[in-house]
Amino acid sequence: MALSLLRCFESSDIMSTKSRIASGQNRDLTPGENLPRNERLPGCAAPVAVAAPAPVGKVWCAPMPDAGEWVVTWTRVPGAIAYETQTSLDGAQWGSGSRFSGTRAVLLVGPARRCWVRVRALGSGAPGAWSEPVMGEKADGISVTA
Prior knowledge:
Order of helices and strands: EHEEEEEEEEE
CATH class of the largest domain: Mainly Beta
Strand order of the largest sheet: 6-5-8-9-10
Helix content: under 10%
Largest sheet: 5 strands, antiparallel
Distance between the termini: 31 Å
Strand content: 25-35%
Radius of gyration: 23 Å
């Protein structure tokens, strides 16, 4: 589980911090010095655990008529803010991911006969698990998807 802050620096907290600075109660940390574990920054709520989104249930991948373009579609995950996709030409080595706000993307993979894709949901905490990889394939002008 990831940690997330609920709120930080509301207007009353900012005024309180300004008062502390004006009265000399605040000081700069020296290099290498850390805040004590039980001391939080003024105005920041304690971190709370945020669950990762559920895995993406179903992914479809198919080539487009334009050379090197593949369309990828997936099912929506409740609570997801965005989605991340990764592609592979061999199903083993994955390229860096691209982020999307919706459940459909057109990816430029290059002139490949096959393309593997996987998707994960991104929430306010940690990202969800990767979906099962799905392979799309070009076959004599007809696209076949898994």
